[in-house]
Amino acid sequence: xxxxxxxxxxxxxxxxxxxxxxxxxxxxxxxxxxxxxxxxxxxxxxxxxxxxxxxxxxxxxxxxxxxxxxxxxxxxxxxxxx
Length: 82
Description:
Layout: H1 2-5, H2 41-56, H3 64-73
């Protein structure tokens, strides 16, 4: 068992590549897919607005308040009670 714990420095393989990272700088992993395929035009507009908000504010996830802000920035308003 002691043979398993002994490793020579030449057996270590450095797998991190700092010059060419897997995700380029400035590109974030996405919460959802990048495809808006299958969405209505209105849903596509909302998805793109939320994605733009997340990129602008460097957020991976947004709160309900932030989502409301995005909706209002697109012009959505709550209908008055009838």
